[in-house]
Design brief:
Length: 573
């Protein structure tokens, strides 16, 4: 029942500008660097490039703290460079999607500087200010107990005015007050400005946080160890979210623009359908966090958690079937600039396993229903940071704030320190931020000088140059996946999804079905041989099935066999 749309048939390549390609030798990637690599991206077979924020910013949170939505952060280039990028992409029939970060701005944005300057400034109400509570000691306390994503209270005290402002992320990222119509129209103006310049759409940062419960109630205690608690139920998918998204959606519609909203903290399908349902006029699709949260422990992201196959199956199957049946649409992703690398996380990054692992994960995700997002380096099977990394190597504010807090409160607990370092090597956002490995030359061909963050030291054996020249590489496998989606859109884009062998604890299998045919995907997530009994109904549906793609190309698999012995990390379509 899926209505057809160009953005459903497209695939997206995500570029993290700081770590993609440095053209001017300052150790930081830039837009001219991206332009120099467009053939590489085009040959992969993607249709859209999504660029993480390149706007003017003090870079407290790698550009998610914007100080001018109309200017470009100088190390990344100029507005003219963006114009050229748009032109070069359009020449190749590709599109550009930019990052819209409007839940908050930088504290250095002129709006916030004005707001902070006095209670009576006309910009004061563009942000969220509240009077303090007072403790028994008579000292001002934050107006409620909400925690910030980057640690501590979500409120920062402004001495000069004696009020607190809200920041769900760093204190340098004050939240905008969307209740104020001037804020909304300023955002609409930013959207129109970039669309008028030829940008083809937006990825919208934490877009489901923009409407908050204006009474700012205390959050229930979910983390007894902490003074500060998650207020998500009062700001995720808040009361006016859909009004705000409809306003944005109607502008995007004028331009037939692409939209994907980032929506943490939601697992309710109906909530998402309200935003992405085909007739809602809001967004095309959203990123949910259920898969990438599977290995977070009870005490949060940096505590130990093992993902379970049955949970992965339940989550995938839930989103796949509910979006299909209700004319919504999925965004398919496993990696991005906030997530560790998937070969390390869900399979194996050992050199001898890595190619098979990466192809297995490509097969698992690449044939599901939805728009595919590939994060730079994922098409090569890049791994997490090396095990040798000490805390000095990390750059990410989330990781460093966490470390400073742990070491401040437990200065002598060496065991705790090393346990946390181990968690960072698994989950820190920096795992996805090491520079692209282009070739075996100095600094992986990313930059002639030492980059802002260390290059992974496996680049001499793991890089794009080797893979582009090798038909058996992860890069070519991904391009085959994308090509197959274009060859069989009825089945692989619009077909329905059914989970096969739901109870199997090692094998992930599903079918995609349309009136024109059906496809079967079988994936062994384990590093050892696994036997899989082909269910009777599956055998009947594929009487003459042939293997179209496999990470063991020499093997032919027949689902007419009642039991298949799958090789380590084997995957086929
Ligand atoms: O991330 C939002 C978010 O909730 C998480 O992904 C969060 O950044 C972190 O990973 C929690 O562990 C978006 C951006 O993708 C992220 O890079 C920004 O730091 C954040 O918003 C603030 O703008």
């Amino acid at each position: 029942p899926s209505v057809k749309a160009w953005w459903k048939e497209s695939s997206v390549y995500q570029i993290y500008p700081a770590s993609f390609k440095d053209s001017d030798g300052d150790g930081v990637g830039d837009i001219p660097g991206i332009i120099s690599k467009l053939d590489y991206i085009h040959q992969l077979g993607v249709d859209i490039v999504w660029l993480n924020p390149v706007f003017e910013s003090p870079q407290v949170d790698m550009g998610y703290d914007i100080s001018d939505y109309y200017g470009i952060h100088p190390p990344y280039g100029t507005v003219q460079d963006v114009d050229e990028l748009i032109q070069r992409l359009h020449e190749r029939k590709m599109k550009l999607v930019m990052d819209l970060v409007v839940n908050h701005t930088s504290d250095q944005h002129q709006w916030f500087r004005n707001a902070r300057s006095s209670i009576n400034n006309p910009y004061r109400d563009w942000y969220i200010w509240r009077k303090p509570m007072f403790g028994i000691d008579g000292k001002p306390q934050p107006p409620n107990n909400w925690v910030s994503y980057f640690g501590g209270s979500a409120w920062e005290y402004d001495e000069a005015s004696g009020e607190y402002y809200l920041h769900l992320f760093a204190k340098e990222q004050p939240d905008l007050n969307w209740e104020n119509p001037q804020v909304r129209s300023a955002v609409h103006q930013i959207i129109r400005h970039w669309l008028d310049k030829g940008v083809d759409g937006f990825r919208m940062d934490v877009i489901n946080f923009i409407s908050k419960d204006p009474s700012f109630p205390n959050a229930p205690i979910t983390d007894p160890a902490s003074k500060w608690q998650s207020g998500a139920k009062y700001y995720a998918c808040g009361p006016k979210l859909h009004d705000y998204l409809r306003d944005i959606g109607s502008i995007l519609k004028e331009y037939d623009a692409f939209s994907v909203g980032e929506m943490p903290e939601v697992s309710d399908v109906q909530e998402i359908l309200n935003a992405v349902g085909y007739d809602r006029g809001e967004l095309n699709m959203i990123f949910h966090f259920e898969i990438v949260g599977l290995d977070h422990g009870a005490g949060g992201k940096f505590t130990c958690g093992n993902w379970e196959m049955r949970d992965l199956k339940a989550i995938v199957s839930k989103w796949q079937t509910s979006m299909h049946e209700n004319n919504g649409w999925n965004a398919l992703y496993l990696e991005n600039h906030d997530q560790p690398r998937t070969v390390s996380r869900f399979a194996s990054d050992k050199l001898e396993d890595r190619t098979r692992s990466a192809k297995m994960l490509a097969t698992f995700m690449g044939f599901q229903s939805g728009t595919v997002f590939i994060y730079q380096g994922q098409e090569l099977g890049m791994p997490n940071v090396p095990r040798t990394w000490s805390i000095e190597e990390y750059r990410d504010i989330e990781t460093l704030n966490h470390w400073h807090e742990i070491t401040r409160t437990n200065p002598d607990d060496i065991g705790l320190h090393s346990a946390n370092l181990a968690e960072y090597r698994m989950k820190s956002r920096d795992n996805g931020r090491t520079p692209m490995q282009w070739d075996a030359s100095t600094n992986a061909g990313f930059s002639p000088v030492k980059p802002w963050i260390s290059v992974h030291d496996d680049y001499t054996v793991w890089n794009a140059a080797l893979q582009v020249d090798d038909e058996e590489s992860v890069y070519h496998y991904w391009s085959n996946v994308l090509r197959l989606r274009k060859t069989f859109p009825e089945i692989l884009v619009y077909g329905s999804f059914e989970l096969i062998s739901p109870e199997h604890s090692d094998v992930f299998s599903y079918t995609r079905t349309s009136e024109t045919g059906c496809a079967l995907v079988v994936v062994n997530f384990r590093a050892n041989k696994i036997s899989w009994s082909v269910p009777e109904p599956t055998r009947e549906r594929f009487p003459s099935g042939k293997t179209i793609l496999s990470n063991y190309p020499q093997e032919t698999r027949s689902v007419l066999d009642s039991v298949i012995q799958l090789a380590p990390f084997e995957a086929f379509l």
